[in-house]
Amino acid sequence: MTGLRSTPGGQRTLARRAAGFYYNPIAGTSPGTYQPDQNGAGTVTHTALLASAAVTGNPLTWTLVHPSTKIRHGVDRDMDGVWDFTDGDAELDLTLFLEGPMNGSVMRSDLKTADLLPAADPYGQGNTASQALLARAGTNAPVDWVMVQLRNNASPTTVVDEMAAMVLANGKVVMANGESPLYFADAPRGQYRVAAWHRNHLAAMTATSTQLGTGVSSVNFGDPALSMYGTEPRRILGGIAVLWAGDVDGNGTLRYTGQDNDRDPILTRIGGMVPTNSVTGYHPEDVNLDGVVRYVGAANDRDPILQGIGGTVPTLTRTEQLP
User: Could you tell me the pTM of the whole model?
Assistant: First the structure.
């Protein structure tokens, strides 16, 4: 699949993501908790557990894991053997809407219905959707994968943690296992800007920070009143704010004509010669996310690009609003 970006357009810095371990206090019993390698030295020391093991003689079992794996159990930052809010893990209840599949106040889940929605995320994060999540229907049905970032408030080009997650038809964003809120294992308690984007929609970011790590904090990108970074970072449809559709090549800019435009790849995808052709599949050229790439006719994927730049002057462009 061409044109799938792992990061939004523009420059940004990704903060170091520490590796970590799952520990099991007593081998063979209940699952343990995730403990991060905070300084990246490749060593984790858990004083409380080591002391317990020395007294009881029970062995400790450790497994090296990717930091975003099984983060539902949290990060034991104070190393007391208990995961709780004192550890300050960032938890985010996020709602967002994509322009492409919008249908009234909800989004269509055509990719899921047509069995085109991949279980593996397209952003290279290594996340896999659970079968239970992929089987959901109605307003709880999965629409597509999105990327969510927590950015440093003082330096919003710096990404502290990020996650490939699934947006549902009702706008709720859930983790790959279907659970919400989103748990960010590498983001300690603090103030963060929230950014989000989709593989063929422009990214957007909050203009002000949100306190995370003291409970479950909610951010609704669908609320037109939410303060956002930049100028016109979202489109308003029927009172709902949505991410702009049509960034087919994933470069952070909507273009209808000229070099690096987003229209030509649609024609190329359907064969490049006969504009009435169509192609079914999971493709970035499928701007409206109905599972079919069309260049002309009803529900074509070319018109939303022109509408996104104003609808009348084809040489205009629209750039995503990120620092």
Answer: 0.79
